[in-house]
Amino acid sequence: xxxVFVTVGTTKFDELIENVISEENVKVxxxxxxxxLTLQVGHGxxxxxxxxxxxxxxxxxxFKDSISDDIKQADLVISHxxxxxxxxxxxxxxxLLVVVNDKLMDNHQLELARQLHSNSHLLYCTCxxxxxxxxxxxxSTLTPFLPGQPQNFAKFLxxxxxxx
Length: 164
Hints:
It contains 7 helices and 6 strands. By secondary structure, it is an alpha/beta fold.
């Protein structure tokens, strides 16, 4: 099985979930060899049924005590740009595609995604560019994010968010 794990953390990001399970994006995932899709939908408006994605084995849930196993089992993580979700996926050395919620006011997510992308750790897009990004994504050009240095990540976040 080639697995995709999608997470929105504790937020409500229905647009991401709806885009991922759209017929067009499911076809792109299948064409790229993915066979299984797991969705963590957080406070989203609905919990998609397994029948939502013809051609992919799909399961969905709102919350768990930990999503570490879901991330570890994934070949691709598609995530909102929350710092915790990004750090956990990068720390697990997973291919990470961050989808920025461009409808948020005062969007720090975009700053974080841009910085991690400019450091060659992840790819990012918005919901409107998700299909094209899924078609063209190439993770071979990325460099691993070295875990175990939380002080460096804290400094990085401070800089990315304009705190320091």
